[in-house]
Amino acid sequence: MVKIPDFDALYEADPDPFHVRSSFYEQRKLGLALDCLTKPTYAAAWDPACGIGEMAARLAPRAERVLASDASPQAVHLTRRRCSACSNVEVRQLKQPQPPPDVADPFDLIVVSEFAFYLTDQSRQDTLEVLHAAAAERAELLAVHWRHHPPEGYISGEQVQEEVVGHLEPRGWRHVVQHDDRDFIIDVLELVGR
């Protein structure tokens, strides 16, 4: 039986429980993920399941506006603190697979980073549908996951990445970048037609 972590408790016990800011592995992965993006700037980026906000903060110089969302109130608090100097980052509490309720314009960059293996099969499919519906024409979707199977997850990151590509390609997304590392996988897809 899969037992999903209590993310609020994790973030309360340690403001960086996954060592995103302190580990070379995490910093390298984040840098490579951002380097895999094919455009220098974006009008609107969405980072669902933003954790402590490190990705959102690093996206801020490349996007006119960034929406960082997470289901955990503690993660939202930490992201607000991390992104306090970024006037173009909005932080909200949203559950997966919940779309932002009042965002009129679609996103031209969507991030799926290190969270989909914690979702059930149906929640992963629903989340991908929500993200697809929120995407602008020619949008990019950046997917990055630790390739292995977390003890608290439903599937491995490698399986997540295969699902993301397999689910979105028939819906008009084209695979444009893949970085296959020993411990993580990065995929970038572009929406070329609905």
Cα distance spanning the termini = 37 Å
Count of separate structural domains: 1
- Main CATH class: Alpha Beta
Order the strands across the largest sheet as they lie in space. Answer: 3-2-1-4-5-7-6
- Tell me what the CATH architecture is: 3-Layer(aba) Sandwich
Unreliable residue stretches: none
The CATH superfamily name is Vaccinia Virus protein VP39
Major β-sheet profile: 7 strands, mixed
Mind explaining what this structure looks like?
With 194 residues, the protein is of the alpha/beta class. The longest helix has 13 residues, at 24-36. The mean pLDDT is 93. Helix 1 packs across helix 4 (73-82). It has one domain (7-191): Vaccinia Virus protein VP39 (Rossmann fold), CATH 3.40.50. It has helices at 7-13, 24-36, 54-59, 73-82, 121-133, 157-168; strands at 42-48, 63-70, 89-93, 107-113, 135-146, 173-180, 184-191. Helices cover 31% and strands 28% of the residues. The termini are far apart.
Summarize the structure.
The protein has 194 residues and is an alpha/beta fold. It has helices at 7-13, 24-36, 54-59, 73-82, 121-133, 157-168; strands at 42-48, 63-70, 89-93, 107-113, 135-146, 173-180, 184-191.
Q: Key features?
A:
7 strands, alpha/beta, Rossmann fold, 194 residues, seven-stranded mixed β-sheet, 6 helices
List the helices and strands and how they pair.
Elements: H1 7-13, H2 24-36, E1 42-48, H3 54-59, E2 63-70, H4 73-82, E3 89-93, E4 107-113, H5 121-133, E5 135-146, H6 157-168, E6 173-180, E7 184-191
Helix pairs in contact: 1-4
